[in-house]
Amino acid sequence: MAIRTKFTEVFGVEAPIAQGGMQWVGRAELVAAVANAGGLGFITALTQPTPADLAREIDKTRDLTDKPFGVNLTILPSINPPPYDEYRQVIVDSGVKIVETAGSNPAPHLPMFHDNGIKVLHKCTSVRHAVKAQSLGVDGISIDGFECAGHPGEDDVPGLVLIPAAARQIEIPMIASGGFGDARGLVAALALGADGINMGTRFMCTVESCIHQNVKEAIVAGDERGTELIFRPLRNTARVASNTVSREVVEILDRGGEFADVKDLVAGVRGRRVFDDGDLEAGIWTVGTVQGLIHDIPTCGELIARIVGEAEELIAGRLAGMVSAAPVSA
Ligand SMILES: Cc1cc2nc3c(=O)[nH]c(=O)nc-3n(C[C@H](O)[C@H](O)[C@H](O)COP(=O)(O)O)c2cc1C
Question: Which GO terms describe its molecular function (predicted)?
Answer without folding.
Answer: nitronate monooxygenase activity
